[in-house]
Amino acid sequence: MRAISSMATRHLLIDLVAAVADGESPALEIESVGGVDAARRLRAGEPFDLVFLAAGALGSLADDGRVDGATLTPIVESEVAVAVPGGDVEAPARVVGVAFDDEAALRDAVVAAARIGISSGPSGIAVRQLFADWGVADRLVEARPGVAVAELVAARQVDLGFQQASELIGHPGVRVLGTLPHDCAIRTVFAGAVAETATDPLRARRYLVALAGACSADLRALHGFEMPVSLRGD
């Protein structure tokens, strides 16, 4: 089977595929690219069996008839985090706490920054909306699709970087300050769905269920994710 995913979940998916490997399940080849590119390729008709993207992007693809909306399965939830160049300081394996006390403190830091890195995916869109009235539009540096904001931060091409926590943690040369303050937090649910081009939709759906079931709390935390609110039962 063949799957495509956004970069945000690539490491998690590698571990999930390993977790469900039993010698009998079909092999799954996952190509991880920028979410914008993934959606474009699906709309162009490129054949895949499974798709792993932000839930909103999958919903749009379902509306376009590119994935089976009935199979859309939430897997993890991620918060946008803030990072700065870390020099020789090793980035922590996990994000701990929030970066600023509140939105006002975040705004002060953003307004003071000369260059601000954002992604081309859902988090970048949400960050642009948050910063819309802060007068920093000309200082936003958008990473190319498939390029992590962490790369811009580590290369000191930006002073602040905003992206999904899973894309920032553990990257050399990057110091993660924490997630956004609670009064302006940006959260994204990442999900999987069976592509309309799947050669065996039933087998693909069973595999998707197995992957979602293997996503334990420890594995989510290891990669900077949480359980989606819709699955928490609260």
UniProtKB/TrEMBL annotation:
InterPro entries: ModA/WtpA
Stored Gene3D superfamilies: Periplasmic binding protein-like II (3.40.190.10)
Organism for this UniProt entry: Microbacterium koreense
Family annotation (Pfam families): SBP_bac_11
Cross-referenced SUPFAM superfamilies: Periplasmic binding protein-like II (SSF53850)
PANTHER family for the chain: BLR4797 PROTEIN (PTHR30632:SF11), MOLYBDATE-BINDING PERIPLASMIC PROTEIN (PTHR30632)
Protein name stated in the entry: Substrate-binding domain-containing protein
